[in-house]
Write a structure and sequence with these properties.
The complex is a heterodimer of chains A (153) and B (165).
Chain A: H1 3-22, E1 25-30, E2 32-38, E3 43-45, E4 54-59, E5 65-71, E6 75-77, E7 83-87, E8 93-97, E9 105-107, E10 112-116, E11 122-127, E12 129-131, E13 140-152
Chain B: H1 2-23, E1 24-36, E2 40-45, E3 58-60, E4 68-73, E5 79-85, E6 89-92, E7 95-107, E8 117-119, E9 126-129, E10 135-144, E11 160-164
The chains are: A mainly beta (153), B mainly beta (165).
């Protein structure tokens, strides 16, 4: 009976310092938006599109080696169960540091990429893609989630 | 001792879980698109001034039987924009016949008199909205101003309309 409060106190002590040391945050800034897409007409949004590309950002510590990974959809889901293919090319992701000497890095969003943070601790990550509607694609709104995961190695 | 063992085991678990959660994080955005039907613009009727006489300006209003007319189909109830490329002269060989004072009228029904909206084709991009069945009609009028010494003959020009979402 006497030992239980001690255990809880120790857990609290070890938990707080570990969270403060990690310093990894990931944020969703902007959806990847294809806007109006015409039936039968493929539409591409490049990752450097300042308005329609998807955008995330993360912060970690300079010197951290980080692994970036997307969980990408194969289709967007539309009305009444309709689906529309979405694809991502090998150059459809860009990582851009926010430091004054940061250089954008193009990478493949379909794979796992590893970077080391050298000049900035806040990184913007952009993603583009292509949708390919069928000629008789059901009209309406389509959507699918894109998950971006950062791991400090 | 038994209590110490439990404490150590719990500490290890707590450290492990906390470190894993802090070293990995994720966020989610959506990929979105709106599928719409293609826009189709058809030239339904030429803007025809018929016979005009030297020195006498002639105007065809949008409601006239010989006004220019376009039929447009697209996504039902969706907004769109119209832009025009308009001639400043009708041409007959090397002779020009000035044309201007453009007028326009768009409607969700094939009616140039009522239920639609007047606009000025030469004013730049103009908004319109397709009907609930995805139709729209656009009527165009103008004025030609022949000179007193205008050379007789048939004069033509091209009116181009572009509609985009």
């Amino acid at each position: 009976m006497h030992s239980r409060p001690c255990v809880l106190a120790l857990l609290a002590l070890v938990g707080l310092p570990s969270l403060a040391a990690a310093q990894l945050t990931v944020r969703a800034d902007r959806d990847l938006r294809f806007g109006v897409v015409i039936q039968g007409v493929s539409k591409y949004v490049p990752p450097n599109d300042p308005i329609y590309s998807g955008e995330f950002e993360f912060t970690a510590s300079i010197g951290n080696q980080v692994q970036l990974r997307f969980t990408l959809p194969n289709n967007l889901a539309g009305p009444a169960g309709a689906t529309m293919p979405i694809t991502f090319g090998n150059n459809d992701a860009i990582a851009q540091g926010t430091g004054p000497t940061s250089v954008p890095v193009i990478f493949n969003p379909k794979g796992v990429s590893v970077f080391r943070l050298v000049t900035s601790n806040r990184i913007l990550v952009f993603i583009g893609g292509r949708v390919t509607p069928a000629a008789n694609q059901r009209t309406g709104s389509y959507t699918a989630p894109i998950v971006f995961t950062v791991t400090i190695l | 001792m038994h209590n110490l063992t439990k404490v150590a085991a719990l500490m290890g678990l707590a450290l492990g879980v906390t470190a894993t959660a802090a070293a990995q994080n994720n966020a989610t955005i959506n990929a979105t698109a709106v599928i719409q039907q293609p826009i189709v613009v058809s030239a339904a009727r030429a803007l025809d001034f018929g016979n005009v006489f030297p020195g006498v300006a002639s105007t065809i209003g949008v409601a006239a039987a010989s006004s220019g007319e376009f039929a447009v189909t697209g996504q039902a109830s969706s907004p769109a924009n119209m832009t025009f490329v308009l001639p400043t002269n009708l041409v007959n060989g090397g002779n020009n016949l000035p044309i201007g004072t453009w007028t326009g009228y768009w409607n969700q029904a094939n009616n140039a008199v009522a239920g639609g909206t007047a606009f000025t084709p030469s004013a730049g991009s103009t908004g319109m909205t397709f009907s609930g069945t995805g139709n729209a009609w656009v009527f165009v009028g103008a004025t030609v101003t022949p000179a007193v010494a205008q050379v007789a003959g048939t004069y033509t020009g091209t009116v181009q309309m572009t509609v985009t979402y």
